[in-house]
Write a structure and sequence with these properties.
The chain is α+β, with helices and mostly antiparallel strands. Helix content is 39%, strand content 21%. The chain has a five-stranded mixed β-barrel with strand order 1-2-3-5-4. Helix 2 packs parallel to helix 4. The protein starts with a strand and ends in an 11-residue tail after the last helix.
Length: 287
């Protein structure tokens, strides 16, 4: 059947002499793969509509029970000129597309994810600084959309807020549960109740353990607050969050571990390697 939908171009590759195979994330059908015949000819009707990081109006001949559909028409809605003209923006946008391509199965529509994808690309296009924050926000919001929204505002056992937990100097993020444990609750859970000396010793040991152990990650309170903001704040305010290089690296590492915990087949995002070239030391600013 011939059908029309909005879409974002995730990936495009040459096919045979003159055609392309294009992966779209569509609003109606989720991820679909299509062949665009004659797309590489000089007088192609598709123009720039088949290039990655493009929002399009797509008309396709959708074949039931087929993995490859036929593009009938593809008109660009947004070409994102700033993204395509600036390497750092492009690296962030490509990271977003890579993540979508890995997370979703073909032909599983998700309107909320489509709107988040388009909204994130719009913000990357218009942001003045801190473009990578938008990738972090997209990553953690994707986890939430797929049912893995973390609880970051307080200790999941005693209920103390992040400001109170900060007095302990440590917190643990439980990857499998997406929850936070304060230092006191970590110590009390792993020591006999009637041995206060053992409690204090266990707390000291916990504070010096490796960064990740048995599905738990020690994180700073500043990182937890930043992750909370990335998850819940208005998307157009995310790029105003100033992070030091150390804080950015901790956020990136924590999110990577969290996503891999819940999406086992997730592979490293190649475009993030490009972003590392833009990492420079920033003045220390609290998250």
């Amino acid at each position: 059947m011939i059908t029309k939908t909005e879409a974002v171009v995730l990936k495009s590759m040459n096919y045979r002499d003159s055609s392309k195979i294009v992966t779209f994330y569509t609003r109606r059908f989720g991820k679909v793969k299509c062949i665009a015949k004659g797309a590489r000819q000089m007088k192609s009707k598709f123009g720039a509509g088949l290039e990655p990081i493009t929002s399009v109006s797509l008309v396709l001949y959708k074949k039931e029970h087929r993995e490859l559909h036929l593009v009938s028409q593809c008109d660009a809605i947004k070409t994102y000129k700033s993204i395509h003209s600036e390497l750092e923006r492009m690296a962030v946008a490509l990271s977003v597309l890579e993540l979508v391509n890995q997370l979703v199965h073909e032909e599983e529509g998700n309107d909320a994810l489509y709107l988040l994808l388009v909204g994130t690309l719009d913000e990357i296009e218009g942001a003045k600084r801190n473009f990578v924050n938008l990738f972090f926000a997209f990553e953690i919001r994707c986890a939430s959309l797929f049912g893995f929204s973390p609880g970051l505002g307080a200790c999941s056992v005693c209920g103390r807020s992040l400001d109170d937990i900060g007095l302990d100097g440590m917190a643990v993020f439980q990857l499998s549960k997406g929850s936070v444990l304060c230092g006191r609750c970590v110590a009390s859970a792993s020591a006999p109740k009637d041995d206060p000396l053992r409690v204090r010793k266990t707390a000291l040991e916990a504070s010096t353990r490796p960064h990740s152990e048995e599905g738990n990650v020690r994180v700073s309170i500043g990182t937890l607050k930043a992750l909370q903001r990335l998850l819940t704040a208005r998307l157009d305010s995310v790029s105003s969050l100033e992070l030091t290089s150390a804080a950015g690296n901790e956020i990136d590492g924590t999110l990577r571990l969290y996503m891999r915990q819940h999406f086992e087949d997730l592979k490293p995002i190649k475009s993030l390697d490009i972003l590392k070239k833009f990492s420079v030391a920033k003045p220390e600013i609290d998250a």
